[in-house]
Design a protein that fits this description.
The protein has 669 residues and is an alpha/beta fold. It contains 25 helices and seven strands. Helices cover 63% and strands 7% of the residues. The two termini are 14 Å apart. Pfam families: AA_permease_2 (PF13520).
Length: 669
Amino acid sequence: MTNNTRAGSDQTPTVKRMLLGEPIASDEGAEQLLPKRRALPIFASDALSSVAYAPQELVMILLTGGLALLAFTPLIATAVVVLLVVVVLSYRQLIRAYPSGGGDYEVARTNLGEVPGVVVAAALLVDYVLTVAVSVASGVDNIISALPQLAPWRIELAIAFVVIIVVVNLRGVREASFAFAIPTYVFVASVAVMIVTGLVRTALGDAPVASSAQYAVHAPELAQVAVILLILRAFSSGCSALTGVEAVANGVPAFRRPKVRNAQATLALMGSIAVFLFAGLTALALVSGVHYAEDPCELAGFDCTTPQPSLIAQVAAATFGSGSTAFFIIQAATACVLLLAANTAFNGFPLLGAVLARDGYAPKSLNTRGDRLVFSNGMLILGGAAIVVLLISRAQLTTLVQLYIIGVFVSFTLGQIGMVRHWRRRLRSEALSARERRSVRVGLTINSLGASLTVAVLIVVTITKFTHGAYLVFIAIPVLAFLMIGVRRYYRDVEHELVIDGATRFGASGDIALVLVSRMQKPVLKALDYAIAAHHRETRAVHVAVDQDDADRLAAQWREMGLEVPLVVLDSPYRAYADPLIRYIDALREENGPSVVTVYLPQYIVGHWWEVVLHNRRARRLASRLMLVHGVAVTLVPWLLDSSELVYGRRSRPLPGQDRAGRSDAARG
């Protein structure tokens, strides 16, 4: 019969190809691996960009208690830097021990058990979603600082940027690295120049002065306990500078060989840059007298009806001048890198999702690579979840930061504890040489220190952020972990159900084809062609008679055309289609034993969405019912209407052995 289905990738919609590019073959995967210079902006953009808002959050929390509390800033910043160095060193050990890309999840599951493993995975997944939301919200904040007139469009801008980042990442890791490398390096270079310039000016006696330095702060009287809690809360907000460190450990498979060495080098470079930028920005904020309040109306003399410039914007304006080219370069680079920091999550989330899918804790679709050899399903899920969070929070950075870093410190803590157990197990091995034993002891020492510090910070972060919204994360993580365990049990039960055992029987005693006929039309002849060409032992045409006149007319046409395939008419006094057909199939199987019954259903393929409404889609509904019947296979035989041929740009031609009407010799009898 004519009207063959279209085939080949040449018919793929051009819009998708324009956005994502041409498909990449599986054997070209090695070309997508990243060298260190391009891996840094891909995996470290989150950690590097955190320094743009971590000092701001630190200063903002301290100013809640008044200007006097700013004296604690150097001490808190030093504690954050020490913690960052320890965590970076700890993750270098983790990369060496577990280079497969599972990161903290693999460490916790291997060394602590299933429940800690899925808790870590849930915490990381939640943190990746919040990373995208926080990064985009922070980037939009910096755009609004330079262009205040865009403030009413905050939410729309945030959502638009998420969509853009999703599309860029769907194009593949290699192309994303090209797109994100320049903004990341411009940000690092421009902020480094600003820090050096500001510190040199300070050393020469011309310290920069922020525009907010003149503002006083309205602060209540605080008891000693309240001051301590405020300092701890400021420390926990400053610890947001550590987010993103774990992404390199999760992305080791994306590096070029030698993977472990390149990943460790990238992590060390990222940590060094982050320490320098965080310490330098905090120092310049203190030198220039930046005053940044959670509620701008707390600043005496500030017009709180206008957007408050971000800390980095104030430092840049104080160092180079608010209208200078350097100021706008820094603001543009900061906004770009904050937006692109979300890219770290778009690499970590899909990779972790693929690992979870391979282990059975997530849907198998998360382990499927798209046209561009990326885990596109994970990227789409992450983008959708981030948009929902941005809508709920109205893209407000201060709100989102309170939810942030809880998940990452849960994974830090369990990952480091798992590494401690890993090294202890290695020490008990008698096969270690003296050199290997020294290396293991070094790893044990580093990870023990990391575990101690991250446990302490997790306690502090939990206490100080719990009532500010972090309790939502403590609800989300157990719920997600519970769902993952449920998915694992489901896959286990399905596997047990499908495994071949002693009771399994193979082989059918019969092979019958049933072609469903409604009216005498071309799609019916095509379905008959398919059934005859398959050489079933027996082929029958079946008509469900809901109207006796139509049934008589069809039988007459059948005889006139001389079709040798017998026509069976099933009465349906209650106008049902599936039930009479199922009863007929049951009777066939009783008569013929365990026969395989193949039902051929003609189906229209339309080219426009509105045509779907105009057709009853009976074939799909029948197929859904027949799939529940044992021993039945369903074959949908497509017939492309003219509208679909025009839309897809392909006209069908009669095949050899067919006449102009499309009937084969077999169908004509």
